[in-house]
């Protein structure tokens, strides 16, 4: 008898407050929200604000659409390959393929905890070593805010909540097209500036329905 638990899936027609309650039951949103609070309190305690803080925030926010596009295109959609006789795959890419196979599986929507537990301390260490403390903390606070925005937005567009405004509908529709129309387009999640600039936000009917939107071209045997 199998002991594998059946994945919990989004049911559709979800109320926003119910979606948020579900969101908070999972570890990665709680971790990211906790880090945001810690980063905010620490930055306020250190003080020593300057115009550099504003500049850092502006640069990071302006770069985010393109960072998101690059990560989605080249890391999340990374294809296994042979390097020096060894098969190389990425943990994030493996998890993302699970997400594409079943976009309604709730636990596959989130940033993998393994990636957060390994990646966040490395990021914090590098930022704190390279930059003066006040600026480093501003960078980490901004990154925490961006991470929370990404995690919630990605959850929201899969949750079955009815979009409450035109922007939410635009984000939800584009992400649905990425999953069910063609996985090579609509690579943004929180926004699609990168797609518009880089040519991956076509009209729906201008691209064919992809036979690999669910598998990303990788079979189970691969």
Report on the structure:
Strand 1 and strand 2 (86-88) form a beta hairpin. The mean pLDDT is 94. Strands 1-2 form a two-stranded antiparallel ribbon. It has 222 residues and is mainly α. The longest helix is centred in the first third of the chain and has 26 residues, at 51-76. It is 59% helix and 3% strand. It has a domain at 16-163. Helix 2 packs antiparallel against helix 6. It contains eight helices and two strands; from the N terminus they run H-H-H-E-E-H-H-H-H-H. 21% of the residues are buried.
Largest sheet: 2 strands, antiparallel
**Overall pLDDT score:** 94
Strand order of the largest sheet: 1-2
What is the gyration radius calculated from CA atoms? 19 Å
SSE arrangement, N to C: HHHEEHHHHH
Give a count of the beta strands, DSSP E runs of length 2 or more.
2
Q: What fraction of residues sit in β-strands? A: under 5%
Q: State the distance separating the first and last CA atoms.
A: 27 Å
Can you tell me the overall shape? globular
Count of individual helical segments:
8
Structural class: mainly alpha
Helical coverage, percent range: 55-70%
The low-confidence runs, each spanning 5 or more residues with pLDDT under 50, are none
């Amino acid at each position: 008898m199998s002991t594998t638990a059946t994945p919990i899936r989004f049911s559709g027609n979800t109320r926003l407050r119910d979606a948020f309650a579900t969101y908070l039951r999972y570890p990665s949103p709680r971790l990211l929200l906790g880090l945001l609070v810690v980063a905010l309190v620490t930055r306020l305690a250190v003080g020593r604000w300057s115009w550099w803080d504003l500049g850092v925030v502006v640069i990071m926010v302006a770069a985010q659409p393109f960072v998101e596009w690059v990560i989605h295109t080249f890391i999340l959609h990374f294809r296994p390959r042979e390097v020096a006789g060894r098969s190389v795959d990425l943990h994030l890419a493996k998890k993302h393929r699970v997400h594409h196979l079943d976009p309604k599986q709730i636990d596959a929507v989130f940033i993998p905890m393994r990636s957060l537990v390994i990646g966040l301390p490395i990021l914090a260490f590098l930022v704190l070593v390279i930059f003066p403390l006040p600026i480093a903390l501003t960078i980490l606070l901004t990154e925490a805010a961006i991470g929370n925005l990404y995690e919630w937005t990605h959850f929201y567009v899969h949750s079955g909540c009815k979009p409450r405004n035109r922007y939410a509908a635009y984000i939800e529709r584009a992400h649905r097209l990425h999953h069910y129309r063609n996985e090579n387009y609509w690579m943004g999640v929180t926004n699609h500036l990168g797609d518009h600039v880089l040519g991956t936000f076509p009209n729906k009917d201008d691209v064919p329905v992809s036979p690999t939107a669910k598998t990303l071209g990788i079979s189970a045997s691969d």
